[in-house]
Amino acid sequence: MKKSSLLLLLISWAGLLQAQPEIQRKFQAQFIEVDNNGLVELPEGNFTLTGTLSMDGKQGVTIRGKGPDKTILNFAGQISGAEGIRITNGSNITIEHLTVQNTKGDAIKTQLVDGIRFLHVKTEWTRGANASNGGYGIYPVQCQRVLIDSCYARGASDAGIYVGQSHHIIVRNSTATQNVAGIEIENSLYAEVYKNKAFNNTGGILVFDLPDLIVKRGGFTKLYNNEVVDNNHDNFAPKGNIVGKVPPGTGIMILAANHVDVHDNQILNNRTAGTVVVSYYITENPINDSSYHPYPSEIYIHNNLYERKNERATMKGRMGKLFRFKLRFGKKVPHILYDGIPDPQAAGKPAICIANNRNQSFANIDAANGFKNISRDAGPYSCTLSIPVNVKLQ
Amino acid sequence: MKALIIFSILLFSLGLMSHLDSSVPTFTPKEKLSDYQFFTGTLSALNPAPALIPYELNSSLFSNYAEKLRFIVLPGGSHMNYHSTQPFDLPIGTVLIKNFYYPLDFSNPGKGRKLIETRLLVHETTGWNALPYIWNDEQTDAFYDVAGDTRTITYLDNKGKKQTTNYVIPNKNQCKGCHTNGKEFLPIGISARHLNKTVRFSGIQGNQLKEWANKGWLKGLPADGIPANADWENTTASLDARARSYLDINCGHCHNAAGPANTSGLFLDIHNQDPHLLGIHKTPIAAGRGSGTLSYAIVPGKPEKSILVYRMNTNDPGIAMPELGREQIHREGVALISNWIRSLQTP
């Protein structure tokens, strides 16, 4: 009896597997044939897909599963396409209540979409952190009016939730874990990132501006009411990527970004730096883009709660060496670390302001002068800033 | 001439000229390739009807080692307008036909071929549209199919070695993945630099574009100064010209300032003259694991340290470039680009 039911199970399982090429074609046809303002409903089940599901030029379409752990699109056997789901050239697109798993490249990429919403979406690599995992989980790029709400991203070898070259962005109520970067806002304007949980990543939340891009200078980003905890994971990004330089133990990292307001976050047990503010020079990459601004400016860090264990910073990677041989903080690692490289165009104006943080501690590491005059005095940065960010998505 | 008139009547009846009927803004794709009557006799022989203009490119996009047979259909009495850098202006109603096939034996084309797919690009009033048709196993016809599919292909390569490979037929959206400049759907090959070459017309050698001008199919062709890309396989051309031509047709349609890969800041089109944006000592952006463990797109003199070669030399879909049509590695392309990078001097 037991044997025959097992056999039956095996047979039905084999039947399911056989049907999968048809699932690929069926879902893909739905993505293409859905009318504007229409609904693509994906059923409950674990579906094996072999190539990217793509949608182009649609308006007002919703792609809806039965729930993040009920509708699972599994790309472990993917043979073509650089992402699981790819949405291009659309407006007012919603992706909700589904999981995208184990893609070879990025999980969900959306490009040139005005109005893109990810709701209750889960992207993950089920083996957890691994260098062979795809780069990005939830990945809107060159989009506007971006909402990422109640999502979950795990295992990305670059960033779990990554918003690039976009504007008017809200990331909230979401969780990122076991990624190199939990949540990353890059070369983007007007972003609010709040009520998220970033834990056990290499770096919790990153705000970066990189050279060579069309959107040169991002900014006006607010990070608040987030829990940024235990981001001490080994960095498993392939070398060469910018996030490969993020040291394990980074809570929040601001690289060459402008007008960033970091407040009311719980930044706990990130062993290397609770909050680090640096110029692009810290990457040691050459800059060939003459119109690029490599310095952070108008960064306001206030009303956050900092805690850390009494332990050393990471000893891994280039930054680990820096801590070990140059900075020599021992176990008294500052919560807030600033590279101190001044923007010659903004002489006399502090690039960062620090106020009212609980358990605050600080170091300017004087990176411009070979770390010679490291200062633990936050006094010169005791100031306030007003950074107007009020993102509306309508 | 008579055939041409009949053909334009046919196109009209298909609704390709539907701009005359405002209530039907786009035409409905035919179910079968044979329904269009592009070819005469046995369909799989692809004998073109008189109205079809065959064309060839100096260098063509690698598509998983498939070979291609290309035709243009212009609406009766109409013509293309020349442009020196952009694709030619093609009239509404133009159809571009691209047939993808494998010779059963690459060293002996006489042994026959297997047709996989035929893609039509149709210039409708609302812009260009891609209509993919997939051939049946019996090779009697190809059927309209938006969803794409995967086939297993077997052939003898040019060394007589049996090759078995997946061939992923792109879906309708993926056609646009390449054929786009910003938001607009555009042809790629119908550009002066790709078409400016010597071809054989009815047994006589001549310049393809001049022949088109003589026939009245192309207007505005200048007497000289027409750009020409190199044939990447032509070893008498300079290594630089061959490599740039290869990168232009294989990468430049996405990797240009207005293309979908402008997110990377890497511009591989033939018009880019900035060595940094071409990849020399350029760090990757949002490449994920596509960077391997390498720091720069191109390290002059060091192909093994160049991300460009790394991404060409794999068929892992999370890394491979181009992203489509690459179930196999293009060994000859990898060799060409490796040699080119080896020849580059540090600026």
Q: Could you describe the 3D structure shown?
A:
The complex is a heterodimer of chains A (394) and B (347). Chain A is mainly beta and 394 residues long. Chain A has one domain: 3 Solenoid (Pectate Lyase C-like). In chain A, 11% of the residues lie in helices and 41% in strands. Chain A has a 28-stranded parallel sheet that branches. Chain B has 347 residues and is an alpha+beta fold. Chain B folds into 2 domains: 218 residues, no CATH class; 105 residues, no CATH class. The termini of chain B are far apart. Chains A and B meet through helix 2, strand 3, strand 6 and strand 7 of A and helix 2 of B.
Oligomer: heterodimer
> What portion of residues of chain A belong to β-strands?
35-45%
Estimate nothing, just give the exact number of structural domains of chain B: 2
Tally of individual domains of chain A: 1
Question: If you consult CATH, what is the topology of chain A?
Answer: Pectate Lyase C-like
Work out the number of β strands of chain B: 16
How are the SSEs ordered, and which strands pair?
The complex is a heterodimer of chains A (394) and B (347).
Chain A: H1 2-18, H2 20-33, E1 39-41, E2 45-48, E3 51-56, E4 62-64, E5 71-74, E6 80-101, E7 106-124, E8 136-141, E9 144-149, E10 152-154, E11 159-164, E12 167-172, E13 175-177, E14 181-186, E15 189-194, E16 197-199, E17 203-208, E18 219-224, E19 227-229, E20 250-255, E21 258-263, E22 266-268, E23 273-278, E24 297-302, E25 305-307, H3 317-327, E26 336-338, E27 352-355, E28 362-364
Parallel strand pairs in A: 1-4, 2-5, 3-6, 4-6, 5-6, 6-7, 7-8, 7-9, 7-10, 8-11, 9-12, 10-13, 11-14, 12-15, 13-16, 14-17, 15-18, 16-19, 17-20, 18-21, 19-22, 20-23, 21-24, 22-25, 23-26, 24-27, 26-28
Chain B: H1 2-14, E1 39-40, E2 47-48, E3 52-55, E4 67-73, E5 80-81, E6 95-103, E7 113-124, E8 127-135, E9 142-144, E10 149-156, E11 162-169, H2 172-178, E12 180-181, E13 184-185, H3 192-195, E14 198-201, E15 204-207, H4 208-215, E16 218-219, H5 239-250, H6 307-312, H7 331-343
Parallel strand pairs in B: 5-16
Antiparallel strand pairs in B: 1-2, 3-4, 4-6, 6-7, 7-8, 8-9, 10-11, 12-13, 14-15
Helix pairs in contact in B: 5-7
